[in-house]
Every structure is written in C-alpha cells, then in structure tokens.
Amino acid sequence: MSKTIMIVDDSASVRQVVSIALKGAGYDVVDACDGKDALTKLDGRKLHLIISDVNMPNMDGISFVKQVKAHPSYKFTPVIMLTTESAADKKQRGQEAGAKAWIVKPFQPQQMLAAVSKLVLP
C-alpha cells in the first residue's frame, strides 16, 4: 500500500512540483493551500508525512505544525518545512513547533525526496 503525504503551500506551482516528484516516487498526495485548509483535511486518514511552507496566508506553517502536533492522530506525523526562509531563528521556531527537517527553496526534488524517505512513517 502506498504512503500518503500532505503538501501545504500557498503556491500552486510549488504544490505541483512537489506532487509530481512524490507521485513519481510512488507516494499518494493530499494538497492544501494554507494551514487552515490543511487542518480541514486532517480527517483521521493516515498521513505518513507532511510537507509545509512557512509563509502562507490565513495560517502560517509554524502555527499549522503546532496545531498538527496537538492533534492526537497526527502527533507523531513527521513534518518537513519547505520554505524560502533560511533564518536561524525561523528554523529554531520550526523545530520547537515540531518540524523534523527544513528545506530551503529553490530546492532539488532529489534533495526533498531524500529527506522524505528518511522521515516518512513506516
């Protein structure tokens, strides 16, 4: 059975690039345009990993990760932040919220897939 990964990014083109790379590697993909949209999709289905942007309208990535980690079904779901932010303080806040990895855009799909394969839940 394939594993499901949620992509949360307000850029449709980023969601598309990430989605194509993940589907090419055999993953199922659920996408959301911001943190609020993503929370509505946390409906109990098993997610093996979440990839989230940091800067988004409605709910930013760090607030979203905090909400995910507070959700009993998703408390242990690994999160990768995929963002243009490279500042150490942002990374620190992401890690404190529960993010496991931080990938800076522009990124190489192979680099992202390597992080995904390391972190994705069994």
Concise structural overview:
The chain is of the alpha/beta class.
The N- to C-terminal Cα distance equals: 11 Å
| Number of helices, where a helix is a run of at least 4 consecutive DSSP H or I residues | 5
Main beta sheet: 5 strands, parallel
CATH class: Alpha Beta
Notes on the protein architecture:
Strand 1, helix 1 and strand 2 form a beta-alpha-beta unit. The protein is built from five helices and five strands; from the N terminus they run βαβαβαβαβα. It has one domain: Rossmann fold (3-Layer(aba) Sandwich). It has a five-stranded parallel sheet, sandwiched between helices. By secondary structure, the chain is of the alpha/beta class. Helices cover 41% and strands 19% of the residues. It holds the Pfam family Response_reg.
Topology diagram in text:
Blueprint: E1 4-8, H1 12-24, E2 28-32, H2 35-40, E3 49-52, H3 61-70, E4 79-83, H4 88-97, E5 101-104, H5 109-119
Parallel strand pairs: 1-2, 1-3, 3-4, 4-5
Helix pairs in contact: 1-5
GO biological process, one term: phosphorelay signal transduction system
Keywords: Phosphoprotein, Receptor
Pfam families: Response_reg (PF00072)
